Amino acid sequence: HMDSIGFTVRYFNQLLSIGSPDAEMGTKLVGHDSFGPIECELEFDKEDHAFYKFGRLIERGTPLTYKIDFRVSEEFIETAYLDNRLGIYNALKVAETLKDGVIIFSCWEEHGGGSVGYLADFIYKKWGVRQALISDITWITEGVEHGKGAAISLRDRNIPRRSFVDKIIHLAEENNIPYQLEVEGMGSSDGGELQRSPYPFDWCFVGAPELGPHTPNEKVHKKDIDSMIALYTCLMKKL
Predict the structure, then answer these.
(1) Are 82 and 137 in contact (CB under 8 A)?
(2) Is residue 171 predicted with pLDDT exceeding 90?
(3) Is 1 within a domain?
(4) What local confidence, expressed as pLDDT, does residue 211 receive?
(5) Over the stretch 75-119, which tens digit does the pLDDT of each residue have?
(6) Burial bucket for residue 158 (CB in 10 Å: 0-12, 13-18, 19+)
(7) Residues sharing a CB contact under 8 Å with residue 161, sequence separation 6 or more, in sequence order
(8) Rounded-to-integer distance, Cα 187 and Cα 170, Å
(9) Which residues touch 34 (CB under 8 Å, ≥6 apart)?
(10) In this structure, are 58 and 81 located in the same domain?
(11) Where in the sequence is the domain holding 233, given as residue range(s)?
(12) Do residues 203 and 222 lie in contact, with contact meaning Cβ atoms separated by under 8 Å?
């Protein structure tokens, strides 16, 4: 998915969330309206309502996102919106060698979905595609760690068909690609929309895990990015 979490300017200096941003007071937000570029600060009141602090009123409906502070160390990449810039980066890297397959860039995943249904309709009717990998970023948890490979999700709020997931695990093992197995009961992805579509898609979420999801400081291990690209390159050829 191409969309990001953030905020929409409401009335006066009020902000409404896009998706589920998780930022502290003082976080820098950027955007642009008809009066010019914007760099403002995020504020909260006692009831946790969000506001912006800026030298003028910002036009209603203006989207604001985290100001990017891109940091690279020997082992990690840390910045806002690795979810889902890394998912897109992975898809573009796979596209460099892809011969048979479809790469889909969806919208609205962070706040309810809506594009995957008609995209599924199009690719199923045009090419008969029935298998899908969700190129997205998941969470570091007590069972999914930095540096141990991309996570193959056995389930989140939705549950993919186990025989399809087992094929993915088998190919990862067969090709010596490091991976981790994720099991969650909450959260969702574009896979949920595929599951609810009227078309017979097998799907699985496969993605690098990050620390600090939906914050301005999302953090991913470089080994997990390499694992994700290697796994997708293999799966798109052999599934």
Answers:
(1) yes
(2) yes
(3) no
(4) 97
(5) 999 999 999 999 999 999 999 999 999 999 999 998 888 899 999
(6) middle
(7) 202
(8) 25
(9) 59
(10) no
(11) 71-238
(12) no
